Amino acid sequence: MLDVRRMALLAAVIDSGSMTAAAEALSYTTSAVSQQLSRLEKEVGQPLLQRQPRGIVPTEAGLVLADHARRITRQLAAAEADLAQVAGLRRGRLTVGTFPTVGGSLLALAVSRFRTAHPGVRLTVRSARLERLTEMLDSGEADLSLLWDYAWNRVDPEAYALTHLLDDPTMLVVSADHPLADRKRVDMADLAAEEWVVREPDHPVAEVLDRSCRAAGFSPRIAFHANDYQEAQAMVSVGLGIALAPRTAVTNPHPDVRVISLGKSAPARRILLARRRERVPAPAEAAMVRVFTDVARAYQRS
What distance in Å separates the CA atoms of residue 280 and residue 286, rounded to the nearest whole number? Predict the structure, then answer.
């Protein structure tokens, strides 16, 4: 492998016409320049300069190598300029994974703020279930991903570098004409006689309901299994039952339901921002982490 620095030094000597002039321009000694060029000639295996009484004359090999050196120097300068653009967030790419229930809350706010601040960065957002989100992180398909967990199934902190954005409380959703609709807070123990609208049995909120009811001393009576939170709210709005939902899932609630705090009688989930531990974060990733942190802080205050 040829030494690029020595190649650039050769080009400087040829362009300036002498070792002395090149040494002065580059803040070297003349002897240091001569030594480096001698090493380069050994690497190449043929002479690059001919010493003459009135200076030096490049050989054919010297001219060829100097021409390559000039092109390489220009390419390196271009690479440095491109890296400066990326470091300054004036260009680049960023892919963020997410899950549906934060789309109308944290995600939309973060995407809007990031694009306003860094319009030159190409931002891609991909929504998926938790298992697919971790697969995208592991494979490099996503640079960052929003994840969630509960106390009984924590995301492995050894697998990813995690930023804890916020705790997302579990809320009670009732119809607008329900006897509890005007309450600001309800305890799970007060809900033993209610019927429930819940997501499919393998959905995390179904486990939250089961755990919360059992901790309060009763088993839930299920009236309806919903496919998503929109359907669950619709069924609640017509009085089919009441439901649980993370706060981020009901940021924009159905007009005929009311969302009530359960305090600590139902578990909250953590909302996390994750990246692979072994990767050095790019400037765009670090900027997005800051954006999500700021947005989450404001969301918690709202």
Answer: 10
Closest listed residue to residue 45, CA positions, set 23, 61, 28, 27:
61
- Give 136-176 pLDDT, tens digit per residue: 999 889 999 999 999 999 999 999 999 999 999 999 999 99
Q: CA 5 to CA 39: how far, in whole Å? A: 12
Residue with tokens 């000639």: 41
Q: 3-class SS at 198?
A: strand
Q: For residue 141, which phi and psi values (nearest 5 degrees)?
A: -65, -30
C-alpha count within 13 angstroms, C-beta hemisphere, residue 299: 23
Q: Give the tokens for residue 233.
A: 């709210």
- Coil vs helix vs strand at 51: strand
User: Residues with Cβ < 8 Å from 271, sequence gap 6 or more?
Assistant: 102, 106, 146, 147, 148, 164, 165, 166, 167, 168, 248, 296
H/E run at residue 245: strand 243-246
Task: Encode pLDDT of 108-123 as tens digits.
Answer: 999 999 999 999 889 9
Quote the CA–CA distance of 269 and 22 in Å, as a whole number: 65
Residue 129 structure tokens? 């279930």
- Residue 49's SS3 state is strand
